[in-house]
Design a protein that fits this description.
Catalytic activity: S-ubiquitinyl-[E2 ubiquitin-conjugating enzyme]-L-cysteine + [acceptor protein]-L-lysine = [E2 ubiquitin-conjugating enzyme]-L-cysteine + N(6)-ubiquitinyl-[acceptor protein]-L-lysine
Structural class: alpha+beta
Number of helices: 7
Distance between the termini: 23 Å
Radius of gyration: 28 Å
Domain E3 Ubiquitin ligase MUL1-like: 84-180
Order of helices and strands: HEEEEEEEEEHHEEHHHEEH
Oligomer: single chain
Subcellular location: Membrane
Number of strands: 13
Keywords: Membrane, Metal-binding, Transferase, Transmembrane, Transmembrane helix, Ubl conjugation pathway, Zinc, Zinc-finger
Largest sheet: 5 strands, mixed, barrel
Strand content: 25-35%
EC number: 2.3.2.27
């Protein structure tokens, strides 16, 4: 085998080995996170990483319209592929794709949780795939007969949607505000107020520089700290008086952030199968690498 061909083959087999190992470990870890994290209720969930199971409810904003079908939904993702043919080589090339960023609302019977889907692995139950001869299938509906003439090209469309009333499994970083649920760290809140006031130092001097010398002495700084403490306490009381709001988003750590119409057992089983397939791919890549290097594997 020529050196260039051997090098390319080694790069391919080595990449297959590393990619398979990485994907296998990732899916195995995700499955364990799903099974090891207990299901919580929105009303009583602890702050931090949590999982919920409920129903998708209508949001305060108007429902979205999926861009390829025009159907009402709460979330959408689409992909448009163009068929390409060159000699014996035929393939589908992605020419356009996008997903919505509108927040979702999950209700589990004890309360509502707003979900920011950005960064989530979303696995909807509804997925439609079809083909046509227009880059945007909705064009035919607006152009009438002329829209059906097409462009002579072939396109494949896929659209996924989340809709009102569907069950939703969600796991991610859970945070609450209002309703008296915030931890009261008076010292940190006081420091935050002082930093905010320092941003407008001229206003700070106007309020607390009694001798008008353009500086704040120790006695004046004591008044600043006392006023900041009172301000921090007042802000805490105002926030606590607000109704509780719950949010779910992407965890800061490398933990799964998943939104799915399926339950955790089905998802974990699917992830285990993917982990096993990736492990087999890793083994094949390792054996191919060993064979290319002339190593006899017993």
């Amino acid at each position: 085998m020529e050196f260039e061909g051997l090098l390319l083959s080694l790069l391919f087999s080595g990449g297959t080995t590393l990619g398979g190992a990485w994907w296998s470990l990732k899916r195995w870890s995700q499955a364990r996170h799903l099974l090891d994290t207990p299901t919580s209720k929105v009303r009583s969930a602890a702050q931090g990483y949590a999982e919920f199971y409920g129903v998708l409810a209508e949001s305060a904003e108007a429902q979205l319209r999926a861009p390829l079908t025009g159907k009402a939904c709460l979330w959408w993702r689409f992909k448009i592929e163009e068929y390409q043919s060159s000699g014996k080589k035929r393939s589908w090339r992605v020419v356009e794709s996008a997903s919505s960023e509108a927040w979702l609302r999950l209700n589990d019977g004890t309360g509502d949780c707003l979900i920011d889907p950005c960064g989530a692995e979303v696995r909807p139950a509804i997925r439609e795939v079809w083909q046509g001869n227009l880059r945007h299938p909705m064009v035919s509906a607006t152009r009438g007969v002329l829209g059906w003439l097409g462009s002579g090209k072939r396109y494949r469309y896929s659209e996924e949607r989340l809709q009102v009333g569907q069950p939703l499994y969600a796991i991610g970083d859970f945070r609450s505000s209002g309703g008296g649920r915030q931890a009261r760290d008076l010292e940190a809140a006081q420091s935050a107020v002082i930093r905010e006031w320092k941003g407008e130092f001229s206003g700070l001097l106007q309020r607390f520089d009694s001798d008008r010398n353009g500086q704040l002495d120790e006695q004046e700084w004591s008044r600043v700290r006392l006023a900041a403490q009172l301000e921090a306490e007042d802000r805490h009381h105002q926030e606590s008086a607000q109704p509780a709001q719950h949010h779910l988003g992407k965890p800061a750590e490398s933990r799964p952030f998943i939104l799915a119409n399926a339950g955790e057992d089905e998802l974990a089983r699917h992830f285990y199968w993917q982990a096993a397939g990736a492990a087999a791919l890793c083994l094949v890549g390792a054996l191919a690498t060993a064979w290319l290097l002339g190593v006899r594997v017993l």
